[in-house]
Amino acid sequence: MKKTALIMAGGRGERFWPRSRKSLPKQFLSLTNDGKTMIQLTVERILPLVAMEDIYIATNEAYRPLVRQQLPQLPEENILCEPVGRNTAPCIGLGAVHIHHKYEDAIMMVLPSDHLIKNNEMFVQTLTDACQIAEQGQNLVTLGITPNYPETGYGYIKADKNTPNGPAYLVERFVEKPDLDLARQYVQSGEYYWNSGMFIWKLSSILTNLKNHMPATFEGLSAIQKAIGTPDQEHVLKEVFPSLPSESIDYGVMEKASGINILPGDFGWDDVGSWLAIERIKGTDADENTFTGNVVAIDTSHCIIEGQDKLIAAVGLKDIIVVDTPDATLICHKEKTGEIKKLLDLLRSQNKETYL
Prior knowledge:
Blueprint: E1 3-8, H1 38-46, E2 55-60, H2 64-70, E3 79-82, H3 88-102, E4 107-112, E5 116-117, H4 120-134, E6 140-145, E7 156-165, E8 168-175, H5 180-189, E9 192-202, H6 203-213, H7 215-227, H8 233-240, H9 249-254, E10 260-265, E11 269-270, H10 277-282, E12 290-292, E13 295-298, E14 304-306, E15 312-315, E16 320-324, E17 329-333, H11 340-349
Parallel strand pairs: 1-2, 1-4, 2-3, 6-10, 12-14, 13-15, 14-16
Antiparallel strand pairs: 4-9, 5-11, 6-9, 7-8, 7-9, 8-10, 16-17
Helix pairs in contact: 3-6, 3-7, 6-7, 7-8
């Protein structure tokens, strides 16, 4: 079957403040040493499977110029701008009806724009296997990441190891982010996988499930699809999309549908969820530090320091994150990276929006 992809790129990447800003969020930044941005890497790694004209980017109007600048070969009509954020179910549904307008049926891959993959060849092979499973009946496939430590920041998926479907398994249940003790149990059991937020299915399969499990959303999406290619397209989108319930695809469909398959993946996945990911991406030196830019340090260990031209001098630091930008500097203990969003809320309350 024809293979297509929807890449979700509307997030603000607030946990990567102050480098990630409302005007230039994480997916449009380069966090690796090759100079390529995260969305460019996401597109590049799926090109062996999906032609550029069959890749769609879901974002918002403010980021349209960034998408065009960073992906100049992408057809402009493939940039789908949501009038407002409505979580992943309406976002995925919007992509599905646009692709359905082009093709009667096709395989649709749904991928976040801000993940990193170390082994691209293994990733492409996993996607190929997922496409084959998705072609069977109305299978919905999600990629589960084999956990190698008890992470408490991810949701988990329990696989039913008694029901193999080729390299995949039927999903027994989705579980929320666990505490540390529970996460350890999940890892030790060998039955749980990290929820990657990546999905593969046929258009017909996901649209049928949206109709069955999210009828109000499906009705609105149907109205949007009827207007695609007409003079009313933008008007209908702006009128209907904001009225759709804000709901995740996990809660709206995946936790309710039958025939959910989880395909384990071990291709060096990282969701780059916080500044702590920089250690995994760039590695550390002999003192377990990760420095970028003009940095000198004495008696400093287990630190992440990100700068540019300005000299950053550190003395006697441990487990500290320093991120310096022209107008804002973050100084944060590693254990407090989850508080960065609260910091941004404080900036909003103090009318310091210019720093967001």
